[in-house]
Design brief:
The protein is an alpha/beta fold. The protein contains 4 helices and 3 strands, in the order H-E-H-E-H-E-H. Strands 2-1-3 form a 3-stranded parallel β-sheet, with helices on both faces.
C-alpha cells in the first residue's frame, strides 16, 4: 500500500442522555466524539495535536431559516474551535453545508487530500446537538467571541 492511501483508522461517537440542564455544549460534543475516535485508533487524545486537517459538518442550528432565529450560542468557526481545544494547528479546515450527504462528502474530500499528499493526519466530525440546543434556547442569548 502506498503511503498516501487514505485509511480510516478510528471512529468515535458520543451520545448524551442526561438532563437537558447538564447537556454538553456543541463543542464539548465534538471534542468527546473526536477523543473517542482517537482511542478507537489506539491513539491518546494528546496525539490529536498533530492533526493537519480538521473538517466539521455544519450544525442544523447554523442552517438558514427558522433554526437561525433560535437564541442559542453558536461557534464562529467550529473547526478552528475544535482544533484549538485539541491543541492542533491544522493547515486546512472546512465547515460544510448542513444535511444531505455532507458527512460523506467531507470524508471524500479528506481522502482526496490525503491521496494528493495535501494532508497526512485528518479528522472529519459531525455533531448533532440536540439537548444542548434545548438547554441553550432557555438561556439568554450569548455573544460568541
Amino acid at each position: 500500500m502506498e503511503d498516501n492511501t487514505p485509511v480510516l483508522v478510528g471512529q468515535g461517537q458520543f451520545t448524551y442522555r442526561g438532563p437537558p440542564a447538564d447537556a454538553p455544549s456543541p463543542l464539548q460534543l465534538l471534542l468527546k466524539a473526536t477523543e473517542a475516535a482517537a482511542l478507537d485508533a489506539g491513539l491518546s487524545p494528546q496525539a490529536l495535536a498533530a492533526l493537519d486537517s480538521v473538517g466539521v459538518v455544519a450544525f442544523a442550528i447554523d442552517a438558514e431559516g427558522a433554526l437561525a432565529a433560535l437564541p442559542v450560542p453558536r461557534l464562529a468557526n467550529p473547526p478552528a474551535s475544535l482544533a484549538q481545544r485539541l491543541g492542533a494547528s491544522p493547515r486546512w479546515s472546512a465547515y460544510t453545508e448542513t444535511g444531505g450527504n455532507s458527512s460523506q462528502h467531507l470524508i471524500n474530500v479528506i481522502c482526496e487530500r490525503i491521496a494528493a499528499r495535501e494532508a497526512d493526519f485528518a479528522v472529519g466530525r459531525r455533531g448533532v446537538p440536540g439537548l444542548a440546543d434545548e438547554k441553550a434556547a432557555r438561556q439568554p442569548r450569548l455573544r460568541q467571541l
